[in-house]
């Protein structure tokens, strides 16, 4: 029988990630990315069956030309996989407050993605280019493109957590509200944790921390997102690599009124120059900061502020769970890899009944046993997220259900 493969596309603001995989066997045959779109050093990295290809593209290449290059390259260099693609899954960053599940792409869906661009101006237009170019290269799969949204996991948020305490008309007229993000990652974690804890989704009460360059945390009660730290945009919430997360909005007035900074400049400071990078003024990479924790006060401060805020969020969210909390889950580049951060954060949460087992925490990656808590503790788990696999599974499900 012909193997059926899914092409997954994730078009970011300045990068594109792609993969060809079999959702049934979970085997990933091809994956890669294009880095530095619209910049000087645009380049493509493609791995086909563990063989790595690296190509330089013309400077300032855009999404359309980068993806055209990638698709032509795949057709030429791995036709045996290319020809087996029978569906295309697109990661869509923002679907507004209407779409609560993955969906086959048609004119209506395109319109919703277009209309939601106002809240994800760097991402949704890029996602639309990804769809457009898929139609061009795979015209025979036109009705087999599926949109998987980062916002749909959070459409269960109750009004009390998604509304901001600003005049109500901003919500009514302009849809200013919390939408959240990282929903694809949270959805995958829920699939996985159902199996690990042997409970159905609606029995699960979890606080999940997705910690990467972008970080967020979500309170999941009876399987539903009931609060999440990212807001109208992914700028709110935890301390991130270069994003500030929560701050007093009056800081913006100060920068504007007293320092005379333009709004574009302030946006640039809060999204690209703040967070871990802003505090230590050198590096946003958690590995660098951990390495320098004991010999650089600023590196120490960056990590301490990160952990302080994360612990505060976890404690706050625990009060929303009606006394039922099965586990804290760590995922994302930092959540999966940094035993140092996990230890620091959990050490602040003993009042809630969380105690880390240092050995399990240190070895969880190689042992793949998920659990890092002591016996007398509530569960603490480390689960590697697999957003591409989740997109492929959703795509396959929708295509096969016709
Ligand atoms: P993104 O939000 O861009 O998807 P990732 O989930 O890839 O980000 O996470 C990137 C972060 O993970 C970086 O801060 C990086 O330093 C951190 N990270 C990766 N590996 C390790 C490690 N072994 N120890 C500590 N931090 C790590």
Concise overview:
The chain is of the alpha/beta class and 402 residues long. Helix content is 40%, strand content 19%.
Model description:
The protein folds into two domains: 5-149, Nucleotidyltransferase, domain 5, CATH 3.30.420.40; 199-387, ATPase, nucleotide binding domain (Nucleotidyltransferase, domain 5). α1 runs parallel beside α4 (124-137), α7 packs across α16 (387-401) and α12 crosses α14 (339-346). It has helices spanning 63-77, 79-82, 107-115, 124-137, 159-162, 169-174, 183-197, 250-258, 263-272, 275-280, 286-291, 297-318, 332-337, 339-346, 358-367, 387-401, and strands at 5-11, 16-22, 27-35, 43-48, 51-56, 85-92, 103-104, 145-149, 206-211, 215-221, 224-228, 327-331, 379-382. The protein has 402 residues and is an alpha/beta fold. The model has no long low-confidence stretch (mean pLDDT 96). The strands form two sheets. It has an eight-stranded mixed sheet, sandwiched between helices. A five-stranded mixed sheet has the order 11-10-9-12-13, with helices on both faces. Residues 212-214, 241, 285-287, 290, 332-334, 337-338 line the site of adenosine-5'-diphosphate.
